[in-house]
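Shape matters. Shown next:

___
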Amino acid sequence: MVGDWSTFFAAMVGAGAALTGLVFVALSINLKQILAFPGLPSRSAEAIILLMQPVIVGALVLIPGQRLVALGVEILLVGAATSFQITKMIWNARALLGQLPVWQVLTRIVFAELAVLPSLIAGGMLVAGVRQGLYVEAGALFICILDGVLDAWVLLVEILR
């Protein structure tokens, strides 16, 4: 079913796993500072969740002999779980976010939600039998990695400023 996509999704699994490992290193190096700042522990969790999405989705896509509908349901479930958790963390941080400049709040919310929304769309497309949903999922995984790296940047560099 996946055909030409297997190399891409294998690369996403590797990239997501490597970047998740780097976030864990950042956490271990800066744990005291991260725990001292309200909101940074959840930001750390957000980075891990977003970087693990390419690992999980990529592994699901690479399961041999899967039907398109089954893959769509799996991507929908992963996307819904990720969306729920990310939205919950942002909601719980609303008081803290209210103290930041508007552009920082909007950047955080828009990037986080844009990282998960395309997976829901892609899953729905695949359930409906539209193979182009894989292109949408590819975009979703790129955004997850981008947002996860931005969160990691905050944990590694910005925290020390």
Remarks:
- The longest helix spans residues 102-127.
- Residues 122 and 133 are 4 Å apart (CA to CA).
